[in-house]
Amino acid sequence: AQKVTQTQTSISVVEKTTVTMDCVYETRDSSYFLFWYKQTASGEIVFLIRQDSYKKENATVGHYSLNFQKPKSSIGLIITATQIEDSAVYFCAMRVMDSNYQLIWGSGTKLIIKP
Amino acid sequence: GPKVLQIPSHQIIDMGQMVTLNCDPVSNHLYFYWYKQILGQQMEFLVNFYNGKVMEKSKLFKDQFSVERPDGSYFTLKIQPTALEDSAVYFCASSLALRLSNERLFFGHGTKLSVL
Prior knowledge:
The complex is a heterodimer of chains A (115) and B (116).
Chain A (H helix, E strand, L loop, with lengths): L2 E3 L4 E5 L4 E3 L2 E3 L5 E8 L5 E8 L7 E2 L2 E6 L4 E6 L8 E9 L7 E2 L3 E6 L1
Parallel strand pairs in A: 2-12
Antiparallel strand pairs in A: 1-4, 3-9, 5-6, 5-10, 7-8, 8-9, 10-11, 10-12
Chain B lengths: L4 E3 L2 E4 L5 E6 L6 E7 L5 E8 L2 E5 L7 E4 L6 E5 L8 E8 L10 E2 L3 E5 L1
Parallel strand pairs in B: 2-11
Antiparallel strand pairs in B: 1-3, 3-8, 4-5, 4-9, 5-6, 7-8, 9-10, 9-11
């Protein structure tokens, strides 16, 4: 079975600090793609960053980076220099290559950035 | 950046009625999706659509659900008849390519459906 798990329901940090959000996944496929999306208070869902399973290097986009630990089936999202506007719900999702077309989502982590 | 528009943002209907949720995907995108999110829970895939056909659907895509995109118009999700458990936020998404499994999806803001 394929599954994505985010155990942290809510995290609160002070702005300008670094935060890590956890995500673990389950799949028997050797090729897969891992995504992080952000859902703002308005409901908008925005793509942040992606990791391809065959790439060893951790993906980095702006102040988002990933901690990809393939042996542990883990794909943590790291946000450095957090800002108030980073407050949102962050979803981890997985798509398996050449299989079904759907994204399998985690339950989300609510991130609160305090001044 | 590219935008997916969903109309309306909120729809309230009585159980048993029909409802149509409308989505205007990114203009050059070819693949369209509907996802369902019950408040506080994760997003769940309903269906995807390409070239006038349903490509894949989940168990949540009940017989009462249907999708279509007549030429040049909205990509729609129709529920007929509605049930109380259909209350959720429905997100439309689109993407340019599907066979590239690393393709990102562009999402709309969602339509909140309240079935009374």
